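URGENT: need a sanity check before tomorrow's submission.

F., can you look over the RidA family protein record below? I want to be sure the sequence and structure line up before it goes out.
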Amino acid sequence: MRRLQPPGWPPPKGYANGIEASGRLVFVAGQIGWDETGAFVSDALAAQVEQALRNIVAVLAEAGAGPEHVVRLTWFVTSRDEYLTSVKEIGVAYRAVMGRHFPVMSVVEVSALVEKFAKVEIEATAVH
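C-alpha cells as predicted:
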C-alpha cells in the first residue's frame, strides 16, 4: 500500500488523499454502533463510532484482514454538528480500534439511518 500525496498539498489530518494498493479486495457493509447482540452500546456518537469500527474489524478478520488493510472508509452521520463537537472523542475511539492507520475517508451527513438509534454508519473497503 502506498499513500498518495500530491506535491505541495498540505498533509491531511486523520485521512489520506489517496492510496495505491494491490491484492485481494474485501468489502464491508455499513456497520453501526451496536454489538453482536444488536444492542446499541451507547447514545454517544464517539462510542457508536468505536463500536462500528470494532464491527468492521470483526468482519475483516473473517477474511484474514485487519485495520491496516483498510483503504477506504465512508462515514454517514446523522448530525454534522454532533460530529464536529465530538471530533476529539471520535479521534480517541478511532485510534483505539484502527491505530494510526488513516485511509481515504469521506464523511457525509444524512437525515436519518435505517436503525432509529444509529448516529453513524461506516462502510469499509480493504485490500490484502
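My own read: The chain has a mean pLDDT of 97. Residues 68 and 122 are 16 Å apart (CA to CA). If you see anything odd, call me.
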